[in-house]
Amino acid sequence: MIERYQTPEMKALWTEARKYEAWARVEQYALEAWEELGVVPRGVAAKLAEGLTRRPIDEAFATQVEALEEQTRHDIVAFTRVLSAWVDDAEVAQWLHFGLTSTDVVDTAQNTLLVEALTLIEAELKRVQEALKRLAVRYKHTPAVGRTHGVHAEPTSFGLRFLSFYAALLRDAERLKRARKTIGIAMLSGSVGNYAHLEPAVEAHVARKLGLEVESVSTQVIPRDRHAELMSALAILGADLERIAVELRHLQRTEVLEAAEPFSYRQTGSSSMPHKKNPVALENISGLARLLRSNLQAELENVALWHERDISHSSVERVILPDSTTLAHYMLRRLGRVLEGLVVYEANIARNLALTRGLVYSQRVLGLLVESGMDRTAAYEVVQRNALKSWEEGRDFRELLEADPQCSLKGEALASAFDPGYFLRHVDAIYARFGL
C-alpha cells in the first residue's frame, strides 16, 4: 500500500521483517513438535529461539533474503538459508524446515498476520460504532426530512440514520468475527497435503502454539475460499463505510448543509477558491471502497487453482491482502475522525423540513381523510391536486387544503396532520432494540 493510505500499525505489521518473523515462528514450533516425536534431537528448537532472541530478525535480514532470492528464485529457500546463517548453529541448519514444504510455512504464517490485522480493524470499527451511537442518541428526537430518490419524502428522526449505520456496522463486526474464525487456520501437511513427510501431530502442535485451528483437508495450500470470505467481509465493510460517506456528502451539499465533516485550522478547500469546504475525507472513503471491492474480485479468482497447487494466487495476495486490511483500517480511522468532529446544523435541518411548505405531510393528510370516512381514491385526488398546486405556485400546502371545499379536514383536525412528532412516535421502540 502506498504510504498515503497506510496507518502506523498496519505499516509495521506488513513489513518483510514481520513476515519473516512469522515464518521463523512456524519453523520453530515445527521443530518443537518433531522433538516431541523423537525425530529431531532435543534442544534444536530452543537453539533457534535463542538465536533469534540474540539476533532478532530485522530489515537487514530481509535485505539478505531478497538478495539471495535473486539467485534461488525461491523465497523460502532463500529464507531458510539466510536464517540458518543468521542463527549460526549446525543443528538448526541441519533440521530447519524438516518435512515441510514452502506453503506450509507461508500460508500458516500469513494467517497469523491476517488474524492480527483483523484485531486492529475490529478495534477501529468499535471506535466508529461508538461515534455513530453517540450521534444516534444525541439526535434521536430531532425531526428532519427523509428523502427517497433524492426527493423530500416525509419527516423522520435525524438520529435514526446514524442508528441505521450503527446497525450495519454491528453486522460488519459479526462478518469480521466469522472471517477471523475462517482464516484462523494452520496447515502443515506437506507437498500435496497427505502428510507423507509430516505427522499430523506436528501440524496440531504448531496450530496450538499460534492460536489457530487445523485445516480439515488441504492440498499444498489452504483452500482460498477462506481468503475470499475474509476479503468479502472487508469489501462489505468498505461498502457500508461508503454508504455512510455518501449520505454525509449529500448532507454537506450547499443546498442541504445539514451536516459537514470537520474543517481544521489552516486547512484549505481549494487552490483557487478560498471559500471552499469540501467533503474530501468522505470522498476519499468512497474512492477507497472501490479498491476493496475490486480486490475481492481478485481473491475470488484465486479460489480455483490447478490440482493440488499452483502459485497464480501468490502474486495477487502479496498485494491485495496487505492492501485490503490496511485500507479497511485507514478508512475506519478516517471516518472515525469525521464522525467525532461532525458539524451538525440543526437550524438547517429545521429549514429543510419546512422547505416544501408542508408537502412532506401529504400521507398523513391522506390517512386522516380516509379515517374520517372519505373514499381513498377521492381523498388521494384531493391531496394530490393541492400538493401539485403547492409545487407549481409555491403556496402553503395546508392553506390550500383549508380553502378546498372537498377537503373534509379543517382547523385543528387538519393542523394535527402537520405535526412532525407523529412521525417520530415509534423511534423509542426502534432504539430499544439496541438497548438505547
UniProtKB/TrEMBL annotation:
<feature type="domain" description="Adenylosuccinate lyase C-terminal">
    <location>
        <begin position="357"/>
        <end position="435"/>
    </location>
</feature>
<comment type="pathway">
    <text>Purine metabolism; AMP biosynthesis via de novo pathway; AMP from IMP: step 2/2.</text>
</comment>
<dbReference type="GO" id="GO:0070626">
    <property type="term" value="F:(S)-2-(5-amino-1-(5-phospho-D-ribosyl)imidazole-4-carboxamido) succinate lyase (fumarate-forming) activity"/>
</dbReference>
<dbReference type="GO" id="GO:0004018">
    <property type="term" value="F:N6-(1,2-dicarboxyethyl)AMP AMP-lyase (fumarate-forming) activity"/>
</dbReference>
<dbReference type="Pfam" id="PF00206">
    <property type="entry name" value="Lyase_1"/>
</dbReference>
<dbReference type="InterPro" id="IPR020557">
    <property type="entry name" value="Fumarate_lyase_CS"/>
</dbReference>
<dbReference type="GO" id="GO:0044208">
    <property type="term" value="P:'de novo' AMP biosynthetic process"/>
</dbReference>
<dbReference type="InterPro" id="IPR008948">
    <property type="entry name" value="L-Aspartase-like"/>
</dbReference>
<keyword id="KW-0658">Purine biosynthesis</keyword>
<comment type="pathway">
    <text>Purine metabolism; IMP biosynthesis via de novo pathway; 5-amino-1-(5-phospho-D-ribosyl)imidazole-4-carboxamide from 5-amino-1-(5-phospho-D-ribosyl)imidazole-4-carboxylate: step 2/2.</text>
</comment>
<dbReference type="GO" id="GO:0005829">
    <property type="term" value="C:cytosol"/>
</dbReference>
<comment type="similarity">
    <text>Belongs to the lyase 1 family. Adenylosuccinate lyase subfamily.</text>
</comment>
<dbReference type="InterPro" id="IPR024083">
    <property type="entry name" value="Fumarase/histidase_N"/>
</dbReference>
<dbReference type="InterPro" id="IPR004769">
    <property type="entry name" value="Pur_lyase"/>
</dbReference>
<keyword id="KW-0456">Lyase</keyword>
<dbReference type="InterPro" id="IPR019468">
    <property type="entry name" value="AdenyloSucc_lyase_C"/>
</dbReference>
<dbReference type="Pfam" id="PF10397">
    <property type="entry name" value="ADSL_C"/>
</dbReference>
<protein>
    <recommendedName>
        <fullName>Adenylosuccinate lyase</fullName>
        <ecNumber>4.3.2.2</ecNumber>
    </recommendedName>
</protein>
<dbReference type="GO" id="GO:0006189">
    <property type="term" value="P:'de novo' IMP biosynthetic process"/>
</dbReference>
<dbReference type="InterPro" id="IPR000362">
    <property type="entry name" value="Fumarate_lyase_fam"/>
</dbReference>
<dbReference type="InterPro" id="IPR022761">
    <property type="entry name" value="Fumarate_lyase_N"/>
</dbReference>
